[in-house]
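In response to reviewer comment 3 from the previous cycle, which asked for concrete evidence that the modeling workflow produces usable outputs, we include below a single protein chain processed end to end. The sequence was submitted unchanged, and the resulting structure tokens are shown without manual editing.
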Amino acid sequence: MHDDRYGTKKKLEERVIELDKLYESIKKEGYKSQREIQQETRKNKKEIPAYINPIIPEREEIMVNIGRNGKFIFDDGYHRLSISKILNIKKIPVRVLVRHKKWQEKRKKLTKSFKKKEKTNEYTKHPDFRDIITR
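The workflow returned the following structure tokens.
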């Protein structure tokens, strides 16, 4: 596959330097969400990087899909994910792009049980249910 993003040797070298800076930043300061990066950039009166959506920065997080049994399936953001793995960072923010139909049914079931104030322990430790449990 040919990728024109780095069409020249100079562009490729610039990208490698950017990735080295990203690695050093995460190593030194920890992994920051796109919203945290945006807020810090504004606070320091710097220009927001072009890759961050100024309205919804969460759109630029590492993206995952969730399989039928709750397994995370990587979708996009491999540089940040790879750096996080190299640095042994245990928790990072991600954006769920797609959920398997069977997994979504489990979310619906949990939502109904919480609305009815029923007790349930099924899957409540899975990070994808945090938004339902904390409502």
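The two ends are 45 Å apart (CA to CA). We consider this sufficient to address the reviewer's concern, and the full set will be provided in the supplementary archive.
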